[in-house]
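Title: Prediction job returns without error message
Component: structure pipeline
Severity: low
Priority: P3
Assignee: unassigned

Description:
Job completed but the reporter wants confirmation the result is attached to the right record. Sequence as submitted:
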Amino acid sequence: MGKYRVPSKKSKYYLPHEQYLAVVHYALSYPALLAEYNTLADTIGAIRYDKDKIQTSNNYDSTFEAAVKLTEISSKLHKIENALELSEANEIIRNRLKEIVCYGKTIYQIVDIDDFKDCGRDRLQALRHKFLYELSKKM
């Protein structure tokens, strides 16, 4: 957690410390959410007669439960991706920003000189703060 500076109180993207940590950890859950979404999307499907029978009573319906969980995960992923779009970066910088914020990489791990000709370290830090601020408004 000590890799990046927290926005100061004077910053327009300031968040209280507890809220800042909650947003950072919410963004770091992106890879796990994406993996779970892909697993559920592959396993959910049409009616299978070797699995639970679909009934119209109040009994447990695994297909319905899987669909609800898939919708919830999709909503969380959409919040993160929408906040990335609101950071107003181009596609290359947005992908790098996703690696930094969602996958916990540092700027130095992903740096490619060609990608960052017009975006320095300070600009990327500002985009990171803006992303976290926008995500906190969506949570």
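Comment from assignee: result matches the submitted record. The two ends are 20 Å apart (CA to CA).
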